[in-house]
Amino acid sequence: KDVQKEREPHAYLSKEEVKEKIQCYNSSVTDKLKMTLNANGIYTGFIKVQMELCRPITVQSSQSQGRCPHSNNETAFYLPEGCVNTLHISSTNTVREVIEALLKKFFVADNPAKFALYKRCHKEDQVYTCKLSDREHPLYLRLVAGPKTEMLSFVLREHETGEVMWEAFTIPELQNFLRILDKEENEQLQILKKRYTAYRDKLEEALGGVWKPG
């Protein structure tokens, strides 16, 4: 169940409360991805982000990194379902910074403005998916919820169709999308043609058996 974009401000914890929360959090961690509290009050830790992308992404090859953006060494493809990535971030990192870091880590050349980060949580036997605002701090949400992903998980998605910033796409990206769509359309068309050809052959065979000349 998708709900509206997160709007409620969070009552951030005091330094002592953060310290207690981190101790409790680390005592419950089972995958060694613990949080660390620094002397300045900033803490660091890990979040896992599930990639739920419907549209193809543009990835730079290792040879094109550092060169002009959108070079010929870029490839557009669909990300496999169920892909989960782990990021090491701090409590000061915002949602927008997390999205940018995630794309940079995997050499994704697409504009970060095309994507949104969601939180998914379980309440009263229901699953709620809520879009986070750019000013949210994912590690704080992770700390408050605890380490169990069943209680809270993060999901990266494209903006909804009505929210897509088409001006964020470059001409080569749009052309890549069209090529992929054309390929999928042709594949589906061939499947349909084969299906109806087989159906027509069976009908003609059945009619031939019924109307044999006497």
From TrEMBL:
It comes from Probosciger aterrimus. It holds the Pfam family RA. Residues 71-161 form the Ras-associating domain. It is found in: Cytoplasm, Cytoskeleton. The lineage of its organism: Eukaryota, Metazoa, Chordata, Craniata, Vertebrata. SMART domains: RA (SM00314). GO terms for cellular component: cytoplasm; microtubule. Residues 163-210 form the SARAH domain. One of its GO terms (molecular function) is zinc ion binding. One of its GO terms (biological process) is signal transduction. This is RASF3 protein. PANTHER family: RAS ASSOCIATION DOMAIN-CONTAINING PROTEIN 3, RASSF. Keywords: Cytoplasm, Cytoskeleton, Metal-binding, Microtubule, Phosphoprotein, Zinc, Zinc-finger. The gene is Rassf3.
